[in-house]
Amino acid sequence: MMHAFPRTFSLPQDRRERVTQTAFVPLTAAAYLRLRREAAGLSIAEVARGLAKKPADFSAATDLVHLLEQPGNVARKIKTLYALQAIFPFDQAVYGQLAREPAEHHPQVCRGCGCSEWDTDDARAETFAWASEYSCVRCAGAPEAERDQ
User: How far apart, in Å, are the Cα atoms of 23 and each of 14, 19, 123, 134?
Assistant: First the structure.
């Protein structure tokens, strides 16, 4: 059986208009945190374990990490960012810009690992470079298996 859905959109007729619509959407503070957590090789549960002061707090900590990685949500307290920063590296200034500034004032952030010129890993600080507007050299040139090592 074939299902038919009503057409609820129309494609732009002008090719230039189509190209601008496919450009990257601005990175959110939530996506930045997720990228930096993943670049550190940590799961949400591992971050929650680091946040929870006692076992009874684990569920609330897991919920907090999930919420902070959902678009539209930002940390309300600076101590939350300090606690997260003790678990995985990220730049609070970059996070703040992504959370509060308009997209044209956002810093350049890699969409593969979340690094920027200000929060590169110490091990690769000397070799950091951009391959494109949205990707660092490491993420653009390395197969997925190599990035995870």
Answer: 15, 7, 31, 11
